[in-house]
Amino acid sequence: MARSRSSTEDIPQTGKIPRHIALIMDGNGRWARKRLLPRIAGHRRGSEAVRTLVESATRLGVEYVTLFAFSSENWRRPADEVSMLMQLFISNLENEISRLHRANIRVRIIGDLTRLGPRLATLIAEAHALTCNNSRLTLTVAVNYGGRWDILQAMNALLRTHPDKAGGDVTEADLTPFLSMGDTPEPDLFIRTGGEQRISNFLLWQLAYTELYFTETLWPDFDAESLNEAIRSYQQRERRFGRTSEQCCAPDS
Ligand code: FPP
Fold first, then answer.
1. Which of 23, 26, 35, 139 should be mutated for ligand 1, with most atoms under 8 A from CB?
2. What CATH code is carried by the domain that includes residue 37?
3. Of all atoms in ligand 1, which is nearest to the CA of residue 67?
4. 184 inside domain
5. CB neighbour class for 113 (10 Å; exposed up to 12, middle 13-18, buried from 19)
6. Above 70 in pLDDT, residue 178?
7. CA quadruple 212, 217, 218, 221: dihedral sign
8. CA 60 – ligand 1 centroid, Å
9. What is the total count of domains within the chain?
10. Is residue 198 part of a domain?
11. Which of 10, 74, 92, 228 does the annotation list as catalytic?
């Protein structure tokens, strides 16, 4: 697997349009409560917002979109909400995968997939197989994912593969290929909807130099214009990666 360039070891190329956007889609429950609807109605509308997001991002030329759909801590939710969310992932995969494939989108699910049921596991394997050679945009969905889990599973896999590293001296270059997103450029822009301002154990390793954007907009209301607004904010940031402002503005920087 090709290793992505590290923002701490190199200075990545950046452009006006973020190459990789990572999102925490928060606020589905509150969107539903405001309308006196059950929480699952908010998650359903959230799925529609995912479709709009993917269409808008594709049109803008974004290459990678990564969504936090279910965290390792979301199992703590009431059992009926967890079960309905799993059902929603199943129906989304069943109903959307052909359209995504026709749009030349590669779909990838990351996370600890061992705890998901057999139907979801089968659909995930089929989605990977069907779309793995698509090249317009990579849509990664994190399910039963946690940033700490990812770093630990990568370190354990590294030590299993290279037992000689157990004494120490593990480098970024050694570890990165074992991370769930080891072949993907680090996110340029992180968006969290719903008003909370935290990372919630999402891509802890990969967000090292990502620009963070928080909005009060609830996820089901996040539309094409909301994405444009987030990108406009991104375009005003100076991405220094540890350098001074003068260095960043120099013509050959
Ligand atoms: C957080 O809102 C949202 C989730 C835990 C689930 C996100 C799932 C979807 C948007 C469904 C579709 C996903 C895909 C990838 C097709 P919340 O429930 O915490 O909202 P609240 O903070 O208002 O209670």
1. 26
2. 3.40.1180.10
3. 15
4. yes
5. middle
6. yes
7. negative
8. 24
9. 1
10. yes
11. 74
Q: What is the pLDDT of residue 40?
A: 94
Are the CB atoms for 40 and 81 separated by under 8 Å?
Answer: yes
What is the per-residue pLDDT for 242?
A: 78
Q: What is the pLDDT of residue 250?
A: 64
Q: What is the CA radius of gyration of the chain?
A: 19
Please state whether 70 falls in left (phi above 0), alpha (psi between -120 and 50) or beta. Answer: beta
Q: Is 248 exposed, middle or buried (0-12, 13-18, 19+ CB in 10 A)?
A: middle
Q: For the sheet containing 189-192, what is the strand order?
A: 105-110, 137-145, 64-71, 20-24, 189-192, 211-214
Q: Which domain holds residue 30?
A: 20-249
Compute the average pLDDT of residues 134-163: 97
Tell how far the Cα of 83 is from the centroid of ligand 1, in angstroms.
13
| Under 8 Å between Cβ of 13 and 183 | no
Q: Which residue, 163, 157, 189, 194, is CA-closest to 176? A: 157
Q: Tell me which H or E stretch contains 106.
A: strand 105-110
- Tell me the residue type at 14: T
Instruction: List ligand 1's pocket residues with C-beta within 6 A.
Output: 25-30, 43, 46-47, 50, 67, 69, 74, 88, 92, 141, 194, 219
**pTM for the structure as a whole:** 0.93
* 215: in domain: yes
The answer, yes or no, to whether residue 201 has pLDDT greater than 80, is yes
Contact (CB, 8 A) for 68 and 25: yes
- Of the candidates 46, 9, 14, 70, which has an alpha carbon nearest to the alpha carbon of residue 217? 46
* Residue 7 counted as domain residue: no
pLDDT digits (tens, 9 = 90+) for 48-73: 999 999 999 999 999 999 999 999 98
CB 89 within 8 A of CB 78: no
Residue located via tokens 């697997």: 1
